[in-house]
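Example 477.
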Amino acid sequence: MRLLHVATEIFPYVKVGGLADVLAALPAAQRALGADARVLLPGFPALLQGIPGLEPAGATPDLMGLGPARFLLGRTGTGVPIYLLDCPALYDRPGGPYEESGDSHRKFGSLAWAAAALATAGDAGGWRPDLVQAHDWQAGLVPLLLAQPGGPRPRTVMTIHNMAYQGLYPRTLLAELGLAPGCFNPGGVEFYGKINFLKAGIAYADRITTVSPTYAAEIQLPAGGAGLDGLLAQRSRDLTGILNGVDYHVWSPSSSPHLEIHYDAKLLSARKINKNLLQRAMGLDEVADTPLFAVVSRLAEQKGLDLVLENVAYLVQLNAQLLVLGTGAPELEAGFHAAALSHPGRVAVDLGFDEGLAHRILAGADVVMVPSRAEPCGLTQLYALRYGALPLVRRTGGLADTVVDADAQSMMDGTATGFVFKEPNPWILGETIGRACQLYRQDPRAWVRIQRRGMAQDFGWAASAREYLDLYGRLLG
Ligand code: ADP
Ligand code: GLC
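Predicted structure in complex with alpha-D-glucopyranose:
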C-alpha cells in the first residue's frame, strides 16, 4: 500500500506542536507494518538544510501563477521518504511555518496543488500513492482537488488535529486558488461567505479521521465543532477517532539525550535528582518535598492556562511550586511572567520553545497540568505518564481517553493514573490541585503506585498505525 501524508510540521525539523511529533512517528510506524508511507511538506529552510542527500524527484506544473516548482526527495532520520516542495518564493522565509505575511493562502494552496499533481501524475521515478492523507487545514484543499472529475485518482483521508484552526480566506481569492466557482456553496468550501480550507477537506475527503475517539464525538456537537459540527455529523459514518501514539524512542526517561540522570519505574528515586537539577536550573527553591506542578504547552486560549494563572496564589499558599514552559498569546505570557516576578523561588517561567527543557520538566516535575478547554488528543499527558509525572487534566477530547482520575473507586481497583476534573473553572481546578497536593503529602506510597502504573501504560504507535492501515484497507477495498 502506497501512502502519501501531506503536512506542514515534522519533528525534529519543523515543530510548533504535537502535529510534528505525529508526522515524525506515524509514517515510520506504518512502514514498520509494511506500508510504503511517505510524506510531503513545503520546502522550509530547516527541512532543505536538515534532510541530507535531497535529489530532484519531478516537477509540478504552474503553481497558482508562480510558475513551475520542483520536488526534492530524501529520507528523514528514521528512514521515511520525504518529498519537499522546493519553492523559495513561498517558503524561504524567516520565522515559523505559520508566520503570516499576507499570502498564506498561496503557501498552503500551492502545497495542495503540488500534492494533487504528485498524487495523480506520480514522481519522476513513477511512484504514485494509492491513498493521500491530508493533515489539518493547511492540507485541506487536497481532498477537494483530488475529488474533481478526471482520470484515476487516489483515495483521500482528511485528518483533523484541531478544529480551532480552519484557514479562512475571502471569496475573492477563489480564482487565484484555482478553485471552480461551483465548489463555493454551503456543501463545499463556503463558510459564512468565506473560503474554508478545513471544510474543503471535510466535505470532499473519502474518509475523515481525528486524533481521539472522544474528540470525534465532541466535534459533531455545536460546543466542539467550531461551526462545522453540522457537516461532521452529516458525515458521521465516514468519521473515525484514532488515538495518537507516543514515540518511545524519543520520549523515554531511560534514554532521552536531554536528561543527565536516566531512570525507569524500578529506579524512581533518580527522579529526585532530576527534580533538584530542574529546580536549580529554573531558580526554584531547592526543596525536595514540595510538590512541583508544571506546564509544557503552547500558550493558546484552548489550553485553559488562564485557569492556572488564577490558581497561582493558591499553589503558593499550598506551599507548592509552579514551573511553566510555553510561548504564545501575549496576555498569557505577560500573566505568567508577572506571576514569576511576584513569587520568586516558587514560580518559574520560560517563555521560549525548548525541546530539551520539556524532557527535563517531565523528568523532574511531580504533576504536569493539561487543563485544556478543548484537546483533540494531547501528547504531553502521555509523555508525562511515561516519565512518572502525574498528569492533571480536564476531561475533554484525548485527555478523557487517556488519564484515569485518582478517585476512591480507581484507587481501590488499582486503575488510577492521574487527576481529572470536569468543569473548566478555576475553583474546580484549584480543588483538583488541592487533591493532588494532599495525596502527594499524605500517601507517598500510593503516589508511587500511580507513577509506576502510568509508566507501564503502552501508548506506542503500533496499535494506532494498525488502525489507520485497517481503515485504508477498507477504503481501498
Ligand atoms: P498541541 O499540538 O496542541 O500543541 P500536544 O500535546 O499534542 O498539543 O503537543 C505539544 C507538543 O509540543 C509536545 O511535544 C510538547 O512537548 C511540545 N511543546 C509545546 N510547547 C513547547 C515549548 N514551549 N517548548 C518545547 N516543547 C513544547
Ligand atoms: C493538535 C492538537 C493536539 C494533538 C496534536 C497532534 O495540535 O491540539 O491535541 O495532540 O494536534 O494530533
